[in-house]
Amino acid sequence: MKKLLISSLIAASLLLCGCQSAYYGAMEKVGYHKRDIMVDRVKAAKESQEEAQEEFSDALKEMQALLNRDGGNLEKAYNKAKDEYESAQSAADNVSNRINKVEGVADALFEEWQNEISEISKANLRRDSETKLKETRRSYQQLIKTMRRAESKMPPILTALKDNMLYLKHNLNAQAIGAIKGEFASLQTDISVLIKEMNTSIDESNKFIESLEKSKS
C-alpha cells in the first residue's frame, strides 16, 4: 500500500510536468518498471471498456424506454435518456484516454528493451531476448488493434444518440418520438456490435496481461 501511494504521488507530480521519461525513471527508482506500468495500464483500459459496455447498454435501454413511452412525463424520460448519453460519451472519452496511455508506455518499453538487447554480450542470451521481444510486440500489436477497432465503433453511435437527443429536445412530443423510432433498430445493432468488439478486446487484454505476468515469474 505504501509503495502504491509513493508511486501515485510521483506519477501525479511528474505527469503534471508532462515529462514521461522522468516519470518512468522515478517509478523505476521505487521498483516499478515499465513492464509493471504496462500491465496496470492494460488493466485500466480493459476496465474502461467494461464500464463503456455498461454505459452504452444503459443509454440504449433509456432510449428504448423513451420511445416506448405512451403518454406521461416525456420530459422526465428524455432527461434520463440524455443523462445516459452523456455518461456514454464520458465513458468513450475514458476508453480513448486509457488506450493512448497503453500506447505511450508500450513505445517506451519496447524502445528500452531493444536498446538493452544490444548490451547483451552472449549471443544465445541476446537471441533469446530478441525472440521474447518479438513475441511480446506481436501480442501487443494484436491487443492494440482490437482495442482501436472497438474504440472506432463508439463515435458513430454517439453521433446517432446526440442527433436523437437534439431532435427530441426541439420536438419533445409523440410525433417526434415516432419519427426516430425507425432508427432504433440500427442503433441497437450498432451497440450489439460494439459490445462484441469490446469483449474481443477484453479477452485480448486478459491474454496479454497473463503473458506479461508469466514472463516475470
From TrEMBL:
Residue ranges that the Swiss-Prot or TrEMBL entry lists as coiled coil: 35-98
Keyword set, alphabetical order: Coiled coil, Signal
InterPro entries recorded: DUF2959, Ferritin-like
Pfam assignment, any one: DUF2959
Signal peptide location: 1-22
Descriptive protein name: DUF2959 domain-containing protein
